[in-house]
Design a protein that fits this description.
The protein has 165 residues and is α+β, with helices and mostly antiparallel strands. The chain is 20% helix and 31% strand. Strand 3 and strand 4 form a beta hairpin. It starts with 8 loop residues before the first helix and ends with a strand.
Length: 165
């Protein structure tokens, strides 16, 4: 179980198996996730997305440009949310069937840079829940806020997932 020892609503519903996606979940947050940013993962990700700027690969180049360490490419922050045993745990915790969900939209806002060696805390909050086609499609909108070890906001991302009946 992902959240076995908690009485928070989202975690308790997962534990007791009576979670249900409805408007009462709007404003509820999932447990914080703290992730260490490994430099080798940054380099791998930067290469995968086609970055060529040395600030993504070379510590000295990044420091010379005023960064604490090598820089994370812009969309790297969202991948940190996958650093869990079950990337579908949040959807399951609110009663969505992971075999029937699709990722339908996402957006990003960037603030302070994420650098190698950072410790990023991510907190996901449900911001909307709605249905379409008389309940045939159930939507959940999440906003995740990421802050670094200095308490600085680094990224805010929003995603919408849909479960089809």
């Amino acid at each position: 179980m992902y959240w076995p020892d908690d009485t928070d609503t989202l975690r308790a519903e997962k534990y007791y198996g009576n979670a249900m996606l409805d408007k009462t979940l709007i404003g509820k947050s999932f447990p914080p996730l703290v992730v260490d940013v490994d430099r080798w993962q940054l380099k791998f990700f930067a290469k995968a997305v086609g970055e060529e700027n040395p600030i993504y690969f070379d510590e000295a180049a990044a420091v010379a440009q005023g960064y604490r360490s090598i820089l994370a490419p812009p969309t790297y922050g969202v991948t940190l949310g996958c650093a869990v045993p079950d990337p579908f745990a949040r959807a399951k915790a609110v009663g969505l069937d992971a075999t029937k969900i699709l990722h339908t939209a996402q957006s990003f806002e960037y603030f302070e840079p994420i650098c190698g060696g950072d410790k990023i805390t991510l907190v996901a909050t449900i911001t909307d829940v709605f249905e379409k086609r008389r309940g045939a499609f159930k939507f959940m909108v999440e906003e995740t806020v990421a802050t670094n070890q200095l308490g600085q906001l680094t990224t805010r991302f929003r995603q919408t997932v849909v479960e089809r009946s």
